[in-house]
């Protein structure tokens, strides 16, 4: 991997990441396809049309349904889902948080009950790396524990120390797997994850420790899990300066367009979030003037596209009224068009952010976008 910073404005970075599966222009939003597909009937051909750079899939979910060994037989996730651009796989660590009632954490790893059929699963650092190696993703995430934002300090300290030990095991196992003859992607990259809840001192100390491991990239995890936006920004202000300047930085699971603008302003390169697809499936669509709910009666006779000037597949061809009709009639096409629009909006937002940094006007762009979105729809 090569990471080249092309331009900066304050802490905001405009960079290029070269990988075995192609270049990534950052800041970038990764479109979330948990089980190797974007929810909302969006194909990989659609992803290319809406200018997706990176697709994100989940280790735990692909392991329990279909199985990583089967996917390896197909030649890995890229061939399985017909996608020739970068893929990042989440390690399964977030499921340590989200399946709290169905897991037990030990030093060796985590024992889960499958959310599908209840059968017992064990996943530790080595198992997570092995599954991600079978998937052959471009970027593998280290296996960590994502503690609750309301966990007490003593729990957070113990959790972070364990996550650090797990990271060392992930790095050793990834090096072993990349050296094997039958490895699908011997150039698989490993990103470590900074944890520490909302405690700045724990976060900073952890950032220092994992920076010494010389990984391919670094993520800030354990945010957007219940803390306020102000707390998240405070943690980013504190911790990002302690992560390596010559490596990409990834803010996991974030977020709204405003969150992304604030994250870029604090030096973040990579983002992902389910918001655009999840909201789209419920008829909520993003515009530069805030979010619209197309189920509202006010759009029943509205002949305009979701957003004037938008070049997404939905806005180029269909009216708000028609898409509302589809949603009300529970036709899948309505959901699909809303998801396509939202993903395009996010991808295009990142393009505009990159251009604004290139042109030295990101601060002005951020201010104008935040004001415009806060003002809400103008009709």
- Classified by CATH, the class of the largest domain is Alpha Beta
Q: Are there runs of 5+ residues with pLDDT below 50, and where?
A: none
Structural class: alpha/beta
- CATH-assigned fold name of the largest domain: TIM Barrel
Strand order of the largest sheet: 4-5-6-10-11-12-13-14
CATH architecture of the largest domain: Alpha-Beta Barrel
What does the main sheet amount to?
Answer: 8 strands, parallel, barrel
Averaging pLDDT over every residue, what do you get? 95
Q: What's the N-to-C terminus distance?
A: 47 Å
Oligomer: single chain
Shape: globular
User: Could you tell me the strand content as a percent range?
Assistant: 15-25%
Number of strands: 16
CATH homologous superfamily title of the largest domain: Queuine tRNA-ribosyltransferase-like
Helical coverage, percent range: 40-55%
SS field, number of helical segments: 15
CA-atom Rg in angstroms: 20 Å
Number of domains: 2
Subunit structure: Homodimer. Within each dimer, one monomer is responsible for RNA recognition and catalysis, while the other monomer binds to the replacement base PreQ1.
Cofactor: Zn(2+)
Keywords: Glycosyltransferase, Metal-binding, Queuosine biosynthesis, Transferase, tRNA processing, Zinc
GO molecular function: metal ion binding; tRNA-guanosine(34) queuine transglycosylase activity
